[in-house]
Amino acid sequence: MIPFKGKFSGIRQYMKGKPHPWGFKVWARTGISGILCDFDVYQGSVQEEKELKKQGRGSFDFRVEQTHNICAVRWYDNRAVTLLSTFDGPQPVDKITRWDKSAKHYVEVSRPSIVKTYNRFMGGIDLLDSFTAKYKFHIRSMRWYLTILWHTIILGVVNAWLQYKRDCKTLQIPEKEVMNRRHFQAQLATSLIQTNTMKRGRPSMDESRAPRAAMARSAPPPDVRRDNVGHLPMKVEKRGRCVHCKDGYTTTACIECDVRLCFNDHNNCFHQFHT
Ligand SMILES: [Zn+2]
Ligand SMILES: [Zn+2]
Fold it and tell me: Is residue 234 very low, low, confident or very high in pLDDT (cuts 50, 70, 90)?
C-alpha cells in the first residue's frame, strides 16, 4: 500500500484496518528476503467472495490459465484470499485448525496447497513493507503519479540494498563493514550525482588554496573514484595523511576527489586509489 490521500481517485483504494487505509494498492512478488521480483499497481477486480462465503470456511475455487500455466486459487477462510502461482495449485489440500468465533470451538478447515506455500514465504512482503515504511519520503500535496514514481524509486533502493547485502554475505565480507540502509542510500546518491561529472569551479594551482581535502574525512564512493573523469593531481600547501595507505603524509591531492594521495618514489596511492 502506498499511502496517498490526494484528489485523484481512479485507482485509489480503501483498505480497512490498515495503518494508511487510503492509497494505491500494489501487487508485489518478493523472495523470502524481501527482494522484490515483480510488482503492479492494482486496478480493481471482480468479486465472487459471496459465493464462497455461502459454501463456508475452507471452500475454494480455482482456474488455470493455459498459455502460461498460471493457477489462480480463491480460498475462503474468514474472508476470501486470492493467490496466483506458476508452480503451485489447490492440491494437495490439507487441514488446519481454526477457532470458530461464533460456535466457540476449534474447527478443521481445508487449506489448498498454494495457501500453505504462501504462508511459508509471505514474510518477504512484510519485510519489504517494513523497509519501505522505515525510509518514507515526506512530500505533501504531490501529484498521484509522482507518489507512485517515488515509491517505485524507494523500492529500487531497498532492492539494491538487499541485493548488496546478499552479495556481501556471499563474498564473506565482515558484518561491520557492510553498509546499513542509510549509509548505502547516501553512497548511492553520491555516486549518482558525482559519477562521470567534473567538479565545477576547478580549484586553481594557487598554493594558498588548500582543497577541502584538508578537512575531508571520507573518500568518495568507488563508482566516483573509478569513473576516470577529471581525477588530476594537484599540490596543496598543507601536508596531510594519505586516504589510501593511511600512514603516508603528502601534499599531493586529487582535484576531483578532494583527498590527499601519495605519489612519491615508493608509493603511487594516487593510481591505486583510482583503479
Ligand atoms: Zn598513500
Ligand atoms: Zn580522484
Answer: very high
- Phi and psi at 246, nearest 5°, equal 65, -5
Return the pLDDT at 203. Answer: 54
- Nearest ligand to the CA atom of 275: 2
Q: What are the residues whose beta carbons fall under 8 Å from the beta carbon of 54, sequence distance 6 or more?
A: none
Q: Are residues 103 and 205 in the same domain?
A: no
Q: Residue 13: what pLDDT?
A: 60
Ion ligand 2: residue ranges with CB closer than 5 A: 231, 254, 256-257
Nearest ligand to the C-alpha atom of residue 233: 2
SS3 223: helix
User: What's the 201 CA to ligand 1 centre distance in angstroms?
Assistant: 26
Per the structure, the count of domains in the chain is 2
pLDDT at 250 over 90: yes
pLDDT bin (cut points 50, 70, 90) of residue 273 is: very high
Find the 249 Cα to ligand 1 centroid distance in Å: 7
The residue segments making up the domain with residue 45 are 2-137
Q: What is the DSSP secondary-structure string of 149-217?
A: HHHHHHHHHHHHHHHHHHHHHHTT--GGGS--HHHHHHHHHHHHHHTT---SSPPPS-TT---GGGT--
End-to-end CA distance of the chain: 43
- Average pLDDT on 145-171 reads 87
Judge whether residue 214 has pLDDT over 90. no
In this structure, are 30 and 112 located in the same domain?
Answer: yes
What type of residue is 184? F
Q: Report CA(246)–ligand 1 centroid distance (Å).
A: 6
